[in-house]
Amino acid sequence: MLIGELSRRTGVSARSLRYYEAQGLLEPRRGTNGYRAYDEDAVASVRKIRALLRAGLSTEVIRQVLPCARGGQVGFDWCAELRAILDGELADLDEQIEALRRSRGALVGLLAER
């Protein structure tokens, strides 16, 4: 399928699809005319990419874990590498949340002094 059809089927702009390709997340074939041609499983791959982006993962991390998420289904194959990377990302988020809580507490303290 061409990029326009993939865009329609996934609700993702062609510009974003080209970005995913540039980041190594999608690998279309090129026709003799130079047009991108996507396999049917690209629809599921784009949905997985979007789910991982919504979870706050960077495209660099997604590139690492996407091989565990290949295939025609929208779900994930929980290979050990994927689980370890996502556990690490979750730990990083927990640290950021705690730092924000401390900052918020300090700010509340400053405002209480007024």
What are the SSEs and their pairings?
Blueprint: H1 3-10, H2 14-22, E1 29-30, E2 36-37, H3 42-54, H4 59-65, H5 80-112
Antiparallel strand pairs: 1-2
Q: What would you say this structure looks like, in words?
A:
The chain is mainly alpha-helical. The protein is built from five helices and two strands, in the order ααββααα. Strands 1-2 form a two-stranded antiparallel ribbon. Strand 1 and strand 2 form a beta hairpin. 15% of the residues are buried. The model has no long low-confidence stretch (mean pLDDT 89).
Gist of the model:
This protein has 114 residues and is mainly alpha-helical.
Task: Give short descriptive properties of this protein.
114 residues, 5 helices, single chain, 4% strand, mainly alpha, elongated, two-stranded antiparallel sheet
Could you give the order of the helices and strands? HHEEHHH
% residues in beta strands? under 5%
The amount of helix comes to: 55-70%
Distance between the termini: 63 Å
Separate helix tally: 5
Category by helix and strand content: mainly alpha
Number of strands: 2
Arithmetic mean of pLDDT: 89
The residue ranges in which pLDDT falls below 50 over 5 or more consecutive positions are none
General shape: elongated
Task: Using the CA coordinates, give the radius of gyration.
Answer: 19 Å
Strand order of the largest sheet: 1-2
- Characterize the largest beta sheet: strand count, sense, and whether it forms a barrel: 2 strands, antiparallel
